[in-house]
Amino acid sequence: MDTLFAAKNWSNQKLIEIAFYISVVAGLVLSQCLFFNNPLFADDMRLAKATLAPVGINQESIKNKILNEISPEIRENNFNEYIKRKYPNSLIKTVAKGIKHIKMTRYYDGRPVKINVVEVDLKLADNFEIKPALSSTSNNLKSRKTITTIAKNNDSIVAINGTYFKPQTGVP
Q1: Which of 69, 85, 123, 145 could form a disulfide bond with 149, CB atoms 3.0-4.6 angstroms apart?
Q2: Residues 51-86: b if buried by 16+ CB within 10 A, e if exposed
Q3: Alpha-carbon torsion 126, 131, 135, 138, what sign?
Q4: CA 81/CA 31 separation, integer angstroms
């Protein structure tokens, strides 16, 4: 079975019908200017020519957001304030510009749990990258290196154990 593509033969009656529908729709759209006081174009609007009342936009907030994106000093100050607010009563150490190491103690079932957190602002720490690292370069998953050793081998300034390894075997 073949597929054929043929040009449609439009009859005069069909063309007249389509032209009629288009003229009806155009007439309805354009008639709003005559029958309703709802102009079609912005130039005709009295509101567009008049001064508008100020909208409830906090210009100071917008200014601060723009300065935060443009100025590294302001961004760094905002980042430092954010960390202090987020982690009160914690030991906060600046590792590098835009990188903070936070040490805190929380209690779980009455027992202390030491927590280490690393917060990074990638726009401030633009000379650094976040990348995964394995304890071995081969496919051998039984390599048993400490996080410190892995960090030194990769010239890292911060290392996070991102998964669980069984301490006895070193296998994930």
Answers
A1: 145
A2: eeeeeeeeeeeeeeeeebeeeeeebbebbeeebeee
A3: negative
A4: 59
Q: Tokens standing for 74?
A: 């302001």
Contact 76, 124 (CB under 8 A): yes
Tokens of 81: 């304030």
Residue pLDDT, tens place only, 82-134? 999 999 999 999 999 999 999 999 998 999 989 888 999 988 888 888 888 88
Other residues' Cβ atoms within 10 Å of the Cβ of residue 20: 10
**Which own/partner contact pairs does 7-16 have at CB distance under 8 Å and 24+ positions apart?**
none
Interatomic CA distance for residues 51 and 129, integer angstroms? 49
Helix residue ranges, H only, 43-90: 46-49, 59-70, 72-86
Structure tokens, 82: 């954010």
Return the amino acid letter for 146: T
Q: Do residues 158 and 95 lie in contact, with contact meaning Cβ atoms separated by under 8 Å?
A: yes
- For residue 167 the two structure tokens come to 């301490």
Answer for the pair 170, 140: CB distance below 8 angstroms, yes or no.
no
